[in-house]
Amino acid sequence: MRSKAYYAAIDLGSNSFHMLVVRVVAGGVQVVSKIKRKVRLAGGLRDDGSLDDAAKQRALQCLRIFSDRVQDIDPSHIRCVGTATLRKIASDTAFITDAQQTLGHPIEIISGDEEAATIYQGIARTTAFPERMLVIDIGGASTELILGQGFEALVLNSLDMGCVTWYQQHFSDGKITHATTQAAITSAGEIVGVVAEQYSKREGAVVLGASGTFKALEEIAIARGETLDFTPNWLTNLLAEAIACGEHDRLHLKGLKANRKSVFVSGLCILIALCEKLSIARLQATSGALREGIIYALLDSSNDADQTIETDVQLRTLSTVAGTYHLDIGQAERVLEVAENLYQQCADHWVMPRNSYELMRAVAYLHELGLSLAYKKASAHAAYMVKHLDLPGFNAALRKHIIALLEGCAGIIDDDTSPSVHELPALRHLERILRLAILLCQRRHAAILDHYQLSVENTHLHLQAPAGFFARNPFLTSLLDEEAAQLTEPESLTFSPRV
Fold first, then answer.
1. What is the rounded end-to-end Cα distance, in angstroms, of the chain?
2. How many Å apart are CA 471 and CA 87, to the nearest integer?
3. Distance between CA atoms of residues 364 and 433, nearest Å
4. Where are the alpha helices (DSSP H) in 285-355?
5. Cα→Cα distances 233→26, 275, 276, Å
6. Cα separation, 38 vs 119, whole angstroms
7. Are 315 and 425 in contact (CB under 8 A)?
8. Which residues pair with 209 in a beta bridge?
9. How far is CA 138 from CA 14, 119, 492, in A?
10. Beta partners for 92?
């Protein structure tokens, strides 16, 4: 009998074929397997709209691999979709039949609008942006643009241009010149211009990009130690570097992987045109896409009673990690309660990060994560694990701040007596509040959660508790003494009973 414990999404794209296999664990989605093959289906498109034999053979070979991988998964838990190139060759019924027989599963050739809607759901269900989102997915033969908010897509468009087809049209000789890149940008701009007005009213929308082009940009930025918020100026400078290389075979940009070189410039030209026509000031990469949208649609349609998925993406992720590593949820909730109380008392006096609540909740849940490995250096273990764990809902910038805060909370739950100190004042302020919250909860009992009063004067904190509290709690008092002792000027901490 085939297993119903797993779900498989198969995306037959114009550049690559992808398979994603997952299972539901502790209320969240755990990736079990990812398979990706550069099939370059769009590269085999002939002028008459047919597909050459080489591309067909590449596709069938990949589908044989996919078929073998999913043969033990219940068919009702598998969905396979074809996108732009398969839409263009849908009349080739003989090839579609061969492909389905090879895979051993039906292939749905979805419309551009359905592709866009599914991409949006994949991103909405794996990110945590409350504001409007403008989503861009530059595929091999089509580019999807979606404006939405929450889980609702408001404007959908699938444009007839992609990194593979643009390579064929503008860079087929392998040359990268100012003239060819400008022609590629101009052609893309003409297509975008037809729908640009539909996206003019998107005040406050965050712009997110999904696809290999955006993944490549993120890898380049990380390799160079640069911000992960991409600007049009940064993209233009990157294109100038590519032009200076002269040819795709000589394209050497720090951080650009070899397997992304062939269609990177064509995708970059499309993105620059999008920024120009839609007046995009900054954008960032995201991990969700079509495959994740397919998975969540499968989960939503499943009749399995135990497959309930939390819609708060970050909370779902934190709960999944807590369940997987047997973390103490009660302790996390106590720490968060105290941290929120202290934060409210300091918020008018200290500059804090914009997303303070998300950071406090994440640290409250994750600060004991390292104990699942060892008590010794537990905070360092937690920081390492957060760096490498799959954390849907937490982008690279949030993850970086969470790691810094975890490192800054060292020495409370473990034997690391040298916590790191963040130089950014807003993050350092939040770090000090979180350290106090974790410290005040070390008795691990709700009865200890008295109503603390915290006053702020520059970098000095003064903590007050009800009369007799500190005398009745010598363990906590000793922790506060140690906390005060490890601070260096101009920071300080004092505490006293309320009169």
1. 71
2. 75
3. 11
4. 290-301, 313-324, 329-346
5. 43, 10, 11
6. 20
7. no
8. 136, 285
9. 11, 11, 52
10. none
The Cβ-side half-sphere exposure at 240, using a 13 Å CA radius, reads 6
pLDDT digits (tens, 9 = 90+) for 375-394: 888 888 999 999 999 888 88
| Rounded Cα–Cα distance for residues 473 and 448 (Å) | 9
Distance from C-alpha of 411 to C-alpha of 20, rounded to nearest angstrom: 40
Six-digit token string for 283? 């954008």
pTM of the predicted structure, to 2 decimals: 0.81
Residue ranges for the chain with pLDDT beneath 70: 1, 303-311, 417-418, 446-450, 499
CB neighbour list of residue 472: distance below 8 Å, 6 or more residues apart: none
The structure tokens 């893309």 sit at 188
Measured CA to CA, the distance from residue 100 to residue 105 in angstroms comes to 6
What's the confidence (pLDDT) of residue 35?
94
pLDDT in tens, 206-216: 999 998 899 99
Distance CA 127, CA 111 (A): 24
Distance CA 171, CA 375 (A): 56
Distance, CA of 50 to CA of 90 (rounded, Å) = 9
Alpha helices (runs of H) in 351-496, residue ranges in sequence order: 356-366, 378-388, 396-408, 425-440, 469-472, 474-486
CB 277 within 8 A of CB 185: no
Does residue 130 have a cis bond before it (omega within 30 degrees)?
Answer: no
Q: With the C-alpha atoms ordered 250, 251, 257, 260, is the resulting torsion angle positive or negative?
A: negative
Residue found by looking up tokens 């309660």 in the block? 337
Q: Please give the sequence-ordered ranges of beta strands (E in DSSP) within 115-212, or none if there are none.
A: 133-138, 143-149, 152-159, 206-210
What pLDDT score does 451 carry? 75
- What pLDDT is attached to residue 305? 41
3-state secondary structure at position 361: helix
pLDDT of residue 311: 67
Tokens of 332: 């996390």
Can you tell me the distance from the alpha carbon of 395 to that of 206, in angstroms, rounded to the nearest whole number?
Answer: 13
320's CB contacts (< 8 A; 6+ apart) are 25, 26, 27, 28, 29, 30
Edge-to-edge strand order for the sheet containing 7-12?
28-38, 16-25, 7-12, 78-82, 108-109
pLDDT of 450? 62
CA distances from 301 to 149, 248, 304, 350 (A): 22, 44, 9, 47
- Could you tell me whether strands 143-149 and 152-159 are parallel, antiparallel, or unpaired per DSSP bridges? antiparallel
Residue 371 contacts residue 416 (beta carbons within 8 Å): no
- Rounded distance, CA 275 to CA 281, Å? 7
Residue in 38, 27, 32, 41 with CA at minimum distance from that of residue 9: 32
pLDDT at 310: 60
